Amino acid sequence: MTAQSTSTHGPMPLWTRLTQAPPGTSWSGIAFALRTTAASLIALYLAFLINLDSPKWAAMTVWIVAQGSRGMTLSKARYRVLGTFTGTGIAVSLTALFAQAPELLLCALAIWIGLCTGVATALRNFRAYGAVLAGYTAAIITLDAAANPSQIFDVAEARLVYILLGIGVEATLSAILAPSRPLDDVRAGLDAYIRQAAGICARAITGEAAATPALQRLFAKALALDTTAEYAASASTLARSALGHVRAAASATLAQLAAAHSLRDYLTQRDGQGDIFLVETSALLQAVANGSTNEQATIVALRGRLGAVLSFPDDRGEGGDEQLFLYDRLDALLSSLQTALARRALLARPEPPPSRLDFAFHVDWTAALHNSIRAVAAVLLASAAWIMTAAPTGSGFVTIVGVVCALFATRDDPVAAGLGFLKGTGWAFAASAICNFALMPMISGFPLLAAVVSLFMVPAGIAMRHPRTAAPAASFAIFFWDLVGPSNDVRTEAAGFFNGGMTLLAGIACGTLAFALLFPPNAQATRRRLHQAIRHDLALIGSTPGIWTSAEWFSRTADRFGRQLAAEKALTSAVMDRDMAGMLAALTIGEAAMELDRLAQTQKAAARPIRTVLRRLASADPQALARAARPAAAHLVRQARRSDSHASRALHRGGVLLQEIAREAIEQATFLKG
Q1: b vs e for 262-281, b when ≥16 Cβ sit within 10 Å of the residue's Cβ?
Q2: Per-residue pLDDT tens over the stretch 239-257
Q3: What is the CATH number of the domain that holds 307?
């Protein structure tokens, strides 16, 4: 066996071996580490040249904003600048108001950090980071100037210079050494998502049970695609103007997934696998999944044949009304696929036409309140400890507690995040001790300093590109600079170093402990709030059907899918399957209700029964909803048989949607009632 393998493949060519990255690394990770290390050293050197008091902050900023792509770096840098300016303004204002009353100053600072933490919980991506930064930047500047409030403007100005210098150097080197084509990345991501969705839909409508979990996870993946596109928009005006195409395609794909889910549920109860339309749709989906880009004509032709059957009740064949649901759901799936492919084609143009489409996202206001209260309480307790002990490093302790409570509040597992942060800082403490007391005394001049620091920073940068080590490596990279603290004219003293290092570790530990003691993570409570929010939104759709667009409803629900999946480890597989089935039912009912409302506005014959069903949806009673939907569906089907072809098609579709609402309301009554 071994001989055969060797003779088939042969030894690896020498050039291939030489060009392979070392085990556990990648060339992109090595390039990131070298580029970021160089940028931090350049920022440090420039800070030395202009004789800043704490040049380490310029180097630290480079590592804080450095990301894997130029778009992510620019997005984070933008919100870091915004957060820094906001926090600076608050720091100056609080110091001016409470300079003579330190207890009130600390209380006001705690409230500000809590407010920023709560706001961050309601935001996404680096907007949340900007809100957090506004909170702890105010703490850093205010507490740095606590001993001498008259110096607050100097401290604030220096902080702004450090941040802008670090961001400017990092952005410049990223543009020179890591040029990117953001729109191409978005195109590739959208194409992969559409193809993956088509493949899973093909498996779902052929009855493959394993397709259901994959289909559920694709709902959450739509938000990851939107995040990628948003980062690309930060680096490219072309990508920014075309963001609507990505969102429209993602929204259409979510509708396609919902239709596939409905079809799979239908086909598990009835034998429709031999139907010619189902077979052709499955083949079409598989062709898209395999990379075919010429399927629009096939979709149009297939939808035309389906429309002809659906428009004339007497021509539906042997299945009669039993086939109505199957054909309508197939048409809905194909319509969504057609929209997604059309948007993909527009995005593929050299200069896509501008497009704008808004998404909506889930906000957990209870979690925001908890995070705010925790941050306020932790900062107040840390402040009380400082006042009672009069520790000379107390201001740093309060600052780091505030940083940890704000920074990790939005994580799925803040305790684990805090422990990872503590681990990386511990390694930074050990490495900086070696650097400060074993290596630094033997060197002089910036070139040797750069060489010594690079020995530590390049491996840290490589580790930042691996998901398992990214968080500890990031904290190592940031706090190594903080603890080494290179300066023009001051050599690190042992007492100050160890006091500062122990204060830093104690602050991180106490901040992490706050997550474990004050409103600790509770997957069951989060799950209940998610489900309550879904039921609340369904009732709103019933009372005010035009409250959201379809894209907003799909994106909000997809966001909740992602949050539900994040709690998966704390739940049994049976509970997860039941919850996901209920959430899919809610998605289907909400989509159907919005479409029925549009139908009621154009078809007077359908208005009254549809309004009755929507009122039942607003009452949040699934049994009453099903009892109202069934006769309404029968009424619309009867009206369709007496109408012309165009009205018949619309009324038949309304009947199918009402049947779907009734079916989902009965099957998922427990979830929908709560």
Answers
A1: bbbbbbeeeebeebebbebb
A2: 999 999 999 999 999 999 9
A3: 1.20.120
